[in-house]
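Residues determine shape. Take a concrete instance:
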Amino acid sequence: MVSINVQPLRASAARAGCHEECATVASKRSASRLSRRCATVASKRSASRLSRGTTITGDEVDELSKQIVQVGIIGQGRSGRNIHAQLVHQLQDHYRIAAVADGIASRRELAEQEFGCRAYATWEEMAAAEPQLDLIVNASPSELHYSISLELLQRGFHVLCEKPLARSVEEVDALIAAAERSGKLLAVFQNSRYAAAFTEIRRIIDSGVLGRIVQIDITVSGFARRWDWQTLQEKGGGNLMNTGPHPLDQALQLFGGDAMPQVLCKMDRANTFGDAEDYVKLLLHGEGRPLIDLEISSCSAFPGEPFVIQGTRGGLHGSGTKLEWRYFDEAEAPEQQLTREPLFNADGKPAYCSETLPWRTATWEAPAHPRGLSAFDAMTEQLYHMLYRALVEGAPLEITPQQVRVQMQVMEACRRQNPHIYQS
């Protein structure tokens, strides 16, 4: 909900290339094949019901004709189970978890109980035994994302890969090429693109009320020590690769879509027990673009607000649940002109530039999800709805591997600038 009020306050002066076209064509071909397969399944189900003399209502016909995407999930850990499987299991009008793969027996048993699916010890076993899968979610450990996604595409599966997609631009290019050769979709789990606050921020910026955007601060910081595998370079860990893909995706969208910015980055190891960084200060800039200041710190006892925006006619600040912005209309502002002479008050004493601007203020609060989903699950749900449209209806992906390629270019630049942490 957005509320706006007008209040006088005092102010003192003291963004498709060839790759994307190919991906769209592949998406439409895949959607056509998937539609035909699902229609056949629905027809067989209807015939079975009719053969038993069962009357099928109109609503049941609609239900039977729905195209259910059969999903396999690699990994049943924090990501594979807690993020993907538990949410996908709620989207039964669109998806069905047919199989999972995990090396831990207790996780396989739990998945069989929770989702009624088949479970395999390795992803290779699952892929070999389940060739009918419409989509495989790659929620393996980070260092395996590239190699597993590449082989899945080569085997002819659509893939949704967790972040980070890969470790280098070269690996992203290889995945894009494999997707184009196979005619399969390669999607990346960048669900923060659908964060409610981020969507509202883009709307506000696009409205123009803040004027030209000069600087955008995005902060994902706190104070924490960490000692798990995601602190290790060999595992694709560190704040930039682990947390960074989400705010960096947002930052690049606000910077200007697929444009490659100039990069200035400082990294440190502060509270981590591993050899990867847990402090990142990243500045993105370019001619005619806003300066983006992105901070991902694990040593900030007093972190700043997640979003702060400076514009020529106002600004914005806030979090994922609440935003506030203020702006003025130049037509309503006092008329001023440059003067080279000293300024004086009415009593003849020296003065500073001072005026009363007709500020307008507005606020936004994140709406409650109709089914009570958390903010994180709500944006994950939107990503899966987008992916369903791409798989079944042939709609283009809204988050493309080409966009993620720019993200990887930025990350490579960050590592080059910090040889004290990344020596090769």
About this structure: Residues 18-189 form a domain with the Rossmann fold fold (CATH 3.40.50.720).
